[in-house]
Each structure stands twice: as structure tokens, then as C-alpha cells.
Amino acid sequence: MVYTWHDATSPPVLPGGTFPGGKIDFGQKKILRLAIQIIVVGIVFFFLGRKIVADWPRITGYPWDLSYPWLALSVVLLGLMFMGHAGGWLLILWRFRHPVPFLPGLYVWFKSLLARYVPGNVLMVVGRVIMIEPYGVPKRVSLTSVAYEQALAAASAATATVIMLPFSPQLQNFSQMIWVVMVVPPLAIAGLHPAILGRIGNWVFQKMKRDTIEEFLPFKDIIWIFFWYCAVWIIAGLALFSMVRTVTSAGISDLPIIIVSAPLAWLASVLFFISPSGLGVREGVYAITLVNVFGSIGGVASAFAILIRFWQTMLEIGFVLVVMTLVKLRHIRIGEPSEAAGSESDGAAPPL
């Protein structure tokens, strides 16, 4: 497969952006963006904290029941979720005829994941592009793969969310029109067609003054990778259910709304991109969607939402350390291209 890239015709970028009352340089923009992020995250956690303080007697009196088997299961399922997301990105690179060895690919994905917490999520993308380049992946292809990853993750998250919504007893009682949301999955799949995704993607690239893309993944490849991500989101929901069951006696009737919460919280954090790694946004979504699971005690749901963030962050760091240890044990030097990644295949792309 040959990729042809065209430079978007656009005026040169000025060293400073326009701002009401004059120009503002990049340093000022960075400070302004950081200030907005701190304010937004602070506001969200302020309201969560206020709810926790107001419900503190009910939180301490809540029948917490720590279950170590469910805690262990949450670790396994979260590990599968992270591996699924990393594997999805490596599958995209594979279909772009740039296969990357599995273990180094995991290392690059997990290490770039930690950059989400740095204000300005672009560092995650830049870090991944730089770290994967020695394996024969051009910058433009790796950037395109990340764009595909985000598009497929968003479409599949929306699909997983709406598929589970009608099965939630709480939402069925809320609206008899809940089944209308089933129109979302076919729309999400159609939106991934190269004819549509190409127009939208290139329009965004042109607005960002970036190179446009002429060739995209075949639609059949997009479809099966899309279902791969749908399965990953279901696993994410089951991991969240395991975390809930670790401290409560939630039942099967709560499973649909809990599964919905995982992809919905991620979608909200993506749409509210100004927050690094969705900090505060995901917690707010969990506090709203899981409140009925905790007996309609908002403070308990808010406290649990913050606990989820802490637990997932610790596991992310732990998985990075595990992968780094495996890389050391296998004597793989990250940054050196492999022979398989550095050569183009004439026939079908080799497996991961």
C-alpha cells in the first residue's frame, strides 16, 4: 500500500496568535491554558468535595464491604482493558504496513499514556510519535494511526454506551423512548467510512495547518477493528463493575448502568479535552451515573469516583513498570529499529 500526502495550502503561521486586544505569544498561551485547566478541574473537585463533606456521616456509616477476590478481578480486567487499547493501536499500525514488535509497542503505548496527566494532552501524541519512529514508522503514519485510534475508540465507546442503555432498569423507567438511541451504532460505523472520515479528518488537518491524507484504511479493516474496541469497552465496564463489587454488594441489575459508565466517562473526557486525562470530568460522570448503585447517596458515589481515579492511576503506573521490566529481561533496547519493522512486506502484512 502506498501513501500519498499533500501539503495543505495555508498561509504561514505567525509566531504569536491573535487575542482580543492584541497578540499573545506561545508562552502566554501555555500559561493561560494551564490556568483554565486548573480552574476547571478545581471547580469539579470542589463540588465533588462539597458533596462528600455534606454526606460524610452517611459515607462513614455506609456498609462498606472490602472483597479481595473482586479487587483482584478488577486488576485482571483493567489489565485486559489496557492491553486491548494498546493492541488496537498496534493493529492499526499493522494494517498500515508498519508492524511493530509487540513488547516494544506495548512499552511505547503505556509510557505515552502517562503523559496524559501533563497539561496539554498533545504531549502523549508527540511522545508516542517520537518513540515509535525508530521502528520504521514515519511521523505522518504514526500521527494518522493515533487519529484512527481516537476515532475508533470514540465511535465504539458511543456504540457500547447506547447498546447497554436500554437494559438499565433505571433508564427504562425514566423514558419509554430509550430504544431510540439504537440509531447511534449504525451512524457511528458509517462515520468511519473513508469517504466520510476522510473529509472530516482532512478538514480538521487543514484547520490545524497540517498535511492532509489521501489514502485511508480499507473500510473492512475499520469494521473489525471497530468491534475490537467495542469488546475492549465492555471489558472496561466489567472492570468497573468489579471495582464497585469490591466495596459494595451491587447486583446484576446494576451491571448495565455500570458498563455504560466506563465508555461514557471516557467520551465526556474527550469532549472536554481541556482537562488533562479527563481529570475531574470522569469523576463527575461516575458520581452521576453510579449514584443509584450506592443507594442514591451522592457523597458515597463522589468518594468512590475519586477512589476509582486513584486506583486506575496506580495500576497504569504499575503496568508501565511491568512492561519496562519485561523489556529489560528480554534485553530489548527501546529505540533501536527491528528488522521486521524496518522492511516493507510485499504480500500480506505480518502478524503482530
Number of helices: 14
Basic shape: globular
Helix content: 55-70%
N/C terminus separation: 18 Å
Average the pLDDT over all residues and give the rounded result: 76
Radius of gyration: 22 Å
For the biggest β-sheet, the strand order reads: 1-4
Please state roughly what percent of the residues sit in beta strands, choosing from under 5%, 5-15%, 15-25%, 25-35%, 35-45% or over 45%: under 5%
Q: Can you count the beta strands? A: 4
Integer count of domains: 1
**Biggest β-sheet description:** 2 strands, antiparallel
Descriptive overview:
- This protein is an all-alpha fold and 352 residues long.
- It has one domain.
- The chain contains 14 helices and four strands.
- Helix 4 runs antiparallel to helix 5.
- The N terminus and C terminus are likely disordered.
Can you give me a brief rundown of this structure?
With 352 residues, the chain is an all-alpha fold. 65% of the residues lie in helices and 3% in strands.
SSE topology sketch:
Elements: E1 5-6, E2 17-19, E3 22-24, H1 26-54, H2 56-60, H3 68-95, H4 102-113, H5 122-132, H6 139-164, H7 169-174, H8 184-191, H9 194-207, E4 212-213, H10 219-247, H11 255-271, H12 281-289, H13 298-329, H14 339-342
Antiparallel strand pairs: 1-4, 2-3
Helix pairs in contact: 1-12, 1-13, 3-4, 3-6, 3-10, 3-13, 4-5, 4-13, 5-6, 6-8, 6-10, 6-11, 10-11, 11-12, 12-13
Based on the model shown, name its key terms.
14 helices; 352 residues; disordered N terminus; two-stranded antiparallel ribbon; mainly alpha
